Amino acid sequence: MFSSAVYMSLLGRTLLIAFCVTVVSIALAWPAAWALARYTSPKAKPLILGFVIIPYITSQLLLIYGFVSLIQAGGPVMSFLSSIGLADPQASIMYTPAANILMLIQESIPTAILVMYSASEQISGSVLEASRTLGASKGFVFTRVIWPLSSAMIGVNFALTFVQTVGAFAEPAILGGPNGQMLGNTISAQLSAGVHQQFAGAMSLVLLVTSLAIVGGVTGLLSWSRSALSGVSKAGRPRVESVAAQTRIAEDALTTEGVLR
Questions:
Q1: Can you give the residue ranges of every domain in the chain?
Q2: Quick count: other Cβ atoms within 10 Å of Cβ 237?
Q3: Which of 59, 156, 161, 250 is the most exposed place for a label (fewest CB within 10 A)?
Q4: 170-181: string of b/e by CB count within 10 Å (b at 16+)?
Q5: CATH superfamily of 5-230
Q6: Per-residue pLDDT tens over the stretch 123-182
Q7: How many angstroms separate the Cα of 248 from the Cα of each of 127, 135, 236?
Q8: pTM for the complete prediction?
């Protein structure tokens, strides 16, 4: 496998697609999960979560062919794009790497939403209120409060989404076309044909090891960022004292306001 440029290219493409799909899915799902956890009424949450869970009780092939009906020539998506002048009426992104990537993102977003919803629910509103009381900007609150408290669940989200994407074979086989194939297609073809099963096992092992290495590296990076942003070194001691003083001032101000009321 390592001596073949074809298989190494497939491995690199598979890892790159899985990484990009995972990052995009988390980036799209986090704001939706945050809005669901913070700005949605308790009565509407079960209904919305039910819609999110629907893909888990739906056949994978049904999801894929439903997506095909959307992006094929003359379908709703392509008809809309042609109506606003962005695509030819008979054009389609079928059998392209873009169709494969969009399908994988669609399948990954529900998992990402559920995990990030749990992470958003765990962040206490009083912590965010205390940050705003101390005059912290939105960027500071995100990097120093929300990110450290959510990074562990982001690591879990990355692992779940990346692992389920890196082994995909049905999506690229149906939607990817000749330039959108992934290593899972080759492994599936080898096993289905009943020949070179040892080689298919070797490719599966290489894919497993490289996937674990990437997940481990990203998890370690997230852990380091959590420690770097939430932990305070000796050099940052004056900063801690300054924040403590600001906290006392804010508490006194809130107490005074309460007395006046």
A1: 5-230
A2: 10
A3: 59
A4: ebbbbbbbeebb
A5: MetI-like (1.10.3720.10)
A6: 888 888 888 888 888 888 888 889 988 999 999 999 999 999 999 988 998 898 888 889
A7: 15, 13, 19
A8: 0.82
